[in-house]
Amino acid sequence: MRREDLGSLAMFLAVAEEQSFTRAAAKLGISQSALSHAMRRLEAKLGLRLLTRTTRSVAPTEAGERLVETLRPALDDIDAKLAALTELRERPAGTIRITTSELAAQTVLWPVVNRLTAEHPDIQVELNIESGLTDIVAERYDAGVRLGERLEKDMIAVRIGPRLRMAAVGSPAYFAQHGRPLTPHDLAKHSCINLRMVSGSIYAWEFEKDGRELKVKVEGQLTFNNIELILAAAVAGHGIALLVEDRAAALLAEGALVRVLEDWCEPFDGYYLYYPSRRQPSPAFSLLLEGLRFRD
């Protein structure tokens, strides 16, 4: 394999990961026809069919899957070594891609990213808001941010935020009409606002008191996959909502919402930044990591 073929291999990996010539071409910044031609040339050179093409999608063949398994760690290693070369620059530089939840992006990441990018103009940061868990190696992220209880295995994890609590909340008018639940079991008598998870399942409300854990499936007229809508519905008096305490703090302070079952909401592990143990952090990433590191 000649050095000039490395470009074709990188193009193949992009097609295999995106499973689309359109998305891969946009990602690489080249035309679809040029990408298609490069793939045909690579397959002819190897004497193997690497991709199965249909009118709707593209998928690697068995040979293509084996090539992906070979290329991905090799190209990741090249990326890491190229990133390490920035140590020779006077100023840290490069792009940092992070997958995160919306709340973590707003409350933990953005204050640090705001300051870091102002102080270091050669650093670019991309934050991708995703509710579900993401394979940061397969999706070529530098790091992910998730709650401590949801961390992936075989990762270096750094705590970047305080412990969190959940809050069960409702409007004063709702509780004036329906009364307040004293235990999680009392929620069966109340209208609750459900959260639809990315997986499609309904979130089972989790409570803990004196080491006793409870999971409660609640009922109500409303189900949303958006926290802002859940808050709006709770303020409007449609029932009780359960969400991270920080999201309801302002409305609780204003008196628009009232908290219940507080003694059943124990603190839990907050946000961690995690990244592959085999990846050598770039100077830019190390700066971000140091800025995010939580100190009690």
UniProtKB/TrEMBL annotation:
Superkingdom classification of source: Bacteria
Position of the signal peptide: none
Xref: CDD domains: PBP2_CrgA_like_5
Name of one Pfam family that matches: HTH_1
Keywords, comma-separated and alphabetical: DNA-binding, Transcription, Transcription regulation
Residue ranges occupied by any HTH lysR-type domain in the UniProt entry: 4-61
InterPro entries: LysR-type_TF_proteobact-type, LysR_HTH_N, LysR_subst-bd, WH-like_DNA-bd_sf, WH_DNA-bd_sf
GO function terms (MF aspect): DNA-binding transcription factor activity; sequence-specific DNA binding
Presence of the UniProt keyword Transcription regulation in the record: yes
SUPFAM superfamilies (alphabetical): Periplasmic binding protein-like II (SSF53850), Winged helix' DNA-binding domain (SSF46785)
An example Gene Ontology biological process: DNA-templated transcription
Family statement: Belongs to the LysR transcriptional regulatory family.
UniProt name for this protein: Putative nucleic acid-binding regulator
Origin species: Mesorhizobium prunaredense
Gene, per the UniProt record: ycjZ
